[in-house]
Amino acid sequence: MNKLTMEYVNLRTGGITAEPIIDGEPVNNGVYLKSIVKQTDDVIAFFPTTTCLSIFDGQVFSSEMKFNLFKKSHPDYEQQCENLRKLIMSQGIAIAAGAYTTRLTYNTDAVAVVDDQGIYLPRENGISEMLSYHLFEDSEQFHADAIVTNQRNVALVMYCADCPTALLRDKVTGAIGVLHSTWRGLVVDKEDGSQSSIVKTTIATMTRLYDTKPEDLEVTIFPCIGLDQYEVGDEVVSQYDKHLLGECIHYCDDGRPHLDLVGAVIKLCERYGVKRESIELTPYSTADYGFNSLRMAPVNYKSASEIDVKNISVSSDQPRELRSRKSIDSDKLFTSALNVLIAYKT
Description:
The protein is about 15% helix and about 35% strand. The chain is of the alpha+beta class. Strands 1, 2, 5, 6, 7, 8, 13 and 24 form an 8-stranded mixed beta sheet that branches. An 8-stranded mixed beta sheet has the order 11-10-9-12-15-14-18-21. Strands 3-4 form a two-stranded antiparallel ribbon.
């Protein structure tokens, strides 16, 4: 089995259904969350929208279900954690087996590793930094934009807004990884003058730890901001030219440059050995289908240190004005609209 579909996850009883309402009639009682679902024989991944349907005694109620992990002091923190628990546990994953995340993402090429002892960051000198970070504990955040593991029933959780997230699955060894690719994370300049990217280091880490061969990897890229919505500046154009990714820059009729983030991820996967036919795309943008989009959301600037970002769902027939986010410090966006990718080995 190897399929990518838009389905409904039953948060009460587990399982996945194509549609809880057929010909206007509810199928059965339950709480259903609409989600992109990637299923293979040994891996399941979810990329949920905010659309949640509650069906009881033939009555259908629609609401939003958020997964943002705010600071622990935020009044919605416990509810957000509970929403994630429901999604993870609905598929039979025991929380005791582990649910790990970097919580916030950074513009890095750093990869975190989950083994039977927990999560850690490998260091170039061979010394590993062990971290006590569990998804539902109030622990320190750490800087990494990818997580890899070969452990079963461990949920890897990666947050994103408009940047691409991807699932990497080694079809031979069974190792998996999830990554978050900011535009900077795809074109990293190292202190020693070398070039890197989150795609390169994720594949390299899986190769080193699990004997993964890049040609054995299957990559699924989940929704991100579309090319039409992602206008960029001269800094981005220069950096992508420098990293031989200039073909991912496209110019609109008005001459303004736009970045094809998905195209850049594909090019880097191919550059480091992944076969093009093993790369799968989801036909959605974060501006569509009830996903969250920071770039498409209205922003109110209160002060340099206090930013209020309103959660909204934008459908394809509700165009929004493109908003520039260059002056926003992502570390302060604790109340921003986020999406989440959850993946685990069964």
